[in-house]
Amino acid sequence: MGATDTLAEYFDFRAHDTDLRTESVAGITTFLAMSYIILVNPFILADAIDIPGYGDIATVQMIAIGTIVASAVAIFVMAFYANRPFGLAPGMGLNAFFAYTVVLGMGIPWETALAAVFVEGIIFIVITAIGAREYVIRLFPEPVKFAVGAGIGIFLLFIGLQEMSIVVADPETAVALGGLATNPAALLGLFGLLLTFVLWARGTKGSIIVGIVATTGLGWVVYLTGLAGTTVLPEALVGEDGGLTFAVVTSPQYDISPLLFAFVDGLQDVDPLTFTLVVFTFFFVDFFDTAGTLIGVSQFGGFLDEDGDLPDMDQPLMADAIGTTVGAMVGTSTVTTFIESSTGVEEGGRTGMTAFVVGLLFLATLVLIPLIALIPAYASFIALVVVGIIMLEGVLDVEWQDPAWAVSAGLTITIMPLTYSIANGLAAGIIVYPIIKAATGEFEDVRLGQWLMALALVGYFYVYTSGMLG
């Protein structure tokens, strides 16, 4: 039996009406669609992770390696255990929560934040193994399941526009349009964003990664031709004398020991109550966000049943649980299934072979780590805006004429960006659903578990707003 036959038998190509070529093309397509995370995740987390003795780009390079390793581990579990065509990596939104809410917002040390991710990853493995996680997810109100993707999308879009200086803070109106005419970097980011949208609209495979690379190239052209100064280049390449230095490119940081098992330090000398509350918060955010993203991917891929549930959900959930635990060990945030996996499904990917190809390609990108230093932030954050727009598609499945659906889905979508928290949006939608159902005389349609979940989330809001987290 040849290698092709062995793979066909292991992944059961015949039962899924597929073949090696189709699965391979699907894997390449998914990788191209989600590979931007290798560039974007490190830039987001590096805002919060400060390693003494290492510059920003060295930190970015270390996190990029951790991102690749954690992603590959999770993807291989998805391939060989779950046999699903889904790619996984540190989740967009979850990385923002780690950096901007927990570390920068709450003032929690990044090592302690990683420790919290590790602990909740272990909890996820346990509750997934006994089936409790799947049971709770099935309690999600349907409007929340179908609205979570759009809510995360708007949240990411908002972060991306801010990081590109297209939207800026304003003391009178909270936010306002940035000074595009006087900011070359913002103009380049805006051009790159429009280019990426054009490529995506035309169906170009890997449009996001192509847009990031093209914007980076244009930024260098603008600098080299003297049209703009070093403000259009990555800060790490500009020396104290204003000249260029390529040390971070020629001598990349492949040693990730400062990140490796850094979560262990985060477990030492911590206040038990504070740490418990941080784990509690991470647990709720990661539990609902991961579940919502998986449901969203399955929704776009047509894997959900008539009740909006994913059959045998515990297996793909185990992949992200293990990925999250390994990710904390190597210095990155929660790993989750990527919505971009739907691109591979559209190409015919139906089995874990698609995921296996994605994982192999992730590992192959380790040789490209030095080149990350050449990419300016305004180029890398294009991905957040584009992905955010794509994820708005989920609103089409919301039954807006139903009051319970409209209120629950509407709050899920809007509370996320308005409070800068994915967890808040999910909690709001889950809490209000049984209340509106009961108010419209449909009390019998609400399950006891949904009332209990709503009550627990009221407790979450109390903890989050009481100042107990610092």
Task: Explain how this protein is built.
This protein is mostly helical and 470 residues long. It has one domain. 63% of the residues lie in helices and 3% in strands. It has a two-stranded antiparallel sheet. Strands 2-3 form a two-stranded antiparallel sheet. A hairpin with a 3-residue loop joins β2 (167-170) and β3 (174-177). α20 packs across α21. The longest helix is centred in the middle third of the chain and has 30 residues, at 272-301. The termini are far apart. 56% of the residues are buried. The model has no long low-confidence stretch (mean pLDDT 86). It comes from Natronosalvus rutilus. The chain crosses the membrane at residues 24-45, 57-81, 88-108, 114-132, 144-161, 181-201, 208-232, 275-297, 317-339, 351-372, 378-396, 408-436, 448-465.
Q: How does the SSE layout of this entry go?
A:
Elements: H1 3-10, H2 20-34, H3 37-46, H4 56-82, E1 88-90, H5 94-103, H6 110-129, H7 132-138, H8 142-163, E2 167-170, E3 174-177, H9 184-201, H10 207-224, H11 247-250, H12 262-266, H13 272-301, H14 314-330, E4 335-337, H15 341-346, H16 352-364, H17 377-380, H18 382-390, H19 403-419, H20 422-439, H21 448-465
Antiparallel strand pairs: 1-4, 2-3
